[in-house]
Amino acid sequence: MDEFASIRLWTERRQSAVWQAGRGVALGIGDDAALLDPALPAEGIEGPRHIVAAVDTMVETVHFTRRTMTDEDIGYKALAANVSDIAAMGGVPLHALVSVSVPKSYGPERVRRLYDGLYACAERYGVAVVGGDTTSSPEHLVVAVPLLGAVEAGGALRRSGARPGDAVVLTGPVGMSAAGLHWLLAQPAAGEGAIDAAAAGEAAALVQAHRRPSPSVRAGRLLRARGSCRALNDVSDGLASEAWELAEASGLRIVLRERDLPLAGSMAAYARRIGASPLDWMLYGGEDYVLLGTVAAEDAEPLRDLFRQEGLPFFIIGETAAGEPGVDLVTGGEGWSGTASARVIPLRKRGYNHFA
């Protein structure tokens, strides 16, 4: 099967021209480049807007193996990681390009399954897939998904706006993806993404969090519209690392309270069984793709009520303070770690680093 036949196999009849036109696509897959109409409205955005651009790349053996991800999961997560970056700016994801470098060991059917997962994510978040590139790879699969979105002009949420006295908030639990990866790597090798059904019951939520994350687009839009969100970041490299990014960009200290970090029951149960610390996964695991940010302190509780009304998670986990940029964790006391007395522990700038 030649390149063009392969592309047709992977992309034809996935998204109708009418549906894509409603997302501002004047010309999609099939020519040298796509044509996008910036005048068409993006969901919920009226008037002037800024284009939001992001790209994440997934590399076999670095981000996934056949032991940890199915082909469908790889495609889904490759797009989801980019959707999360758009969400962190308070934006709406719109148009994706897909670049795939495929080793001969995969073959067109495996790549078709990858596209099945990618289009499943695109359907969930209203993303039009408008083109891309396909090349061969000498050994490993590489997937890169540049993504364009939109946000109200002047309304993007950045890392640099936090002020001393803000509340620090999260839009979902953290650590579950890392715990899911730990569980997957601890299982006997069973082929491409296969999991023994009986064994998977205890860790289904953790595995789902690792393989099929849920970017917080709706949460990002609510925070942007509210006007009290000062800074925002998505949790891709671990809570501690992302908090450091906010602290350095805004020039202040971030103080996290251990007792207020959302501890998922499934993760706590798995950690107890294997004698691990869930706090390590929460602080340093990454790939949770929830949002970490700061909001005006007086609006933190009303925001939690608003999110509850919308059926969305929202946790107030700390505050900001003037001082040298850094991140502290208040542990013990009423926390769930079992430590009797409260302590303030400076957190190292540690998380996933490709070049460490």
Automatic annotation (TrEMBL):
Catalytic reactions on record: thiamine phosphate + ATP = thiamine diphosphate + ADP
This protein's UniProt keywords: ATP-binding, Kinase, Magnesium, Metal-binding, Nucleotide-binding, Thiamine biosynthesis, Transferase
Boundaries of every PurM-like N-terminal domain copy: 30-151
Record-listed Mg(2+) 3 binding positions: 32, 85, 234
Pfam families tied to this protein: AIRS, AIRS_C
Other remarks on this protein: Reaction mechanism of ThiL seems to utilize a direct, inline transfer of the gamma-phosphate of ATP to TMP rather than a phosphorylated enzyme intermediate.
PANTHER family xrefs: THIAMINE-MONOPHOSPHATE KINASE
Protein name: Thiamine-monophosphate kinase
Biological source species: Paenibacillus thailandensis
Gene name in the database record: thiL
